[in-house]
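Q:
My hope is that you can spare some time for a protein that puzzles me. I hope you can help me see how the letters and the tokens relate. Thank you; the sequence and its tokens follow:
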Amino acid sequence: MPAKTKKGELVEPASRSAEQSSTAELLSARQLAELKKPLAPNRIEHRKAKFGTVEYLPTWDIIQRANEIFGYGGWQRQIVRLEKVFEEENEGSYNVAYLCEYRIVIGKIVHEDVGFGAAVNYPEPTAAHEKAVKTAVSDGLKRCFRALGPQFGLTLYAHGVSREVEEYQPVESRKATDKQIGLLYVHLKEHELREPDLLAYINLKMDSEYSSLKEISLRTASRAIDRFAHEGKSFAQEIKRAAQNI
């Protein structure tokens, strides 16, 4: 289970091994040699995002490479916990977010991590839940495997997100990602706040006129998420006071 520091705050568990033995002692020389190889560029896929182009390894590639290195039946995967952390219907649009605690087992090696998936502004609930669940499970799988190094995309990660291929764009013009918006919805629900409450606070502080979280910048979303994580109730009280003054 994820460790808890205070109510509602999840801390991702560090990857761990089932025994104190090092990974080098538990894998064959061939497997270690494969894991140490650099990531082949032809395995990397790209997708457009609000802040540029993201490099990533698709889920099918992770599974295929695991079979090649560890053998079919040489590793196992398990969803330890799948939890819906947010659900909202807003004028016919559905927003859903899930956390997935995931585990992979390779012989005596065990790695655990937590994935997150969000679906924002979907026209019907079934599709929203399907998207959020699949994203959370895939994210959990990838986060577990990246502990094994470059063959599983570790080199594509920086600060916990897939590496961006630089495309110049002023930071403030980059819009908040769906994942950030999903996290903000989770924090709002935890503190019994609504989207208009947070928008009222942001508009007051920035002299802006945002009408939806989809419109706020990536930097603004990051700052709000950080304040929720570190200040919790005190930040929520600031938001409530701002909303009451509008």
Summary: The mean pLDDT is 81. The chain has two domains: 3-165, 173-244.
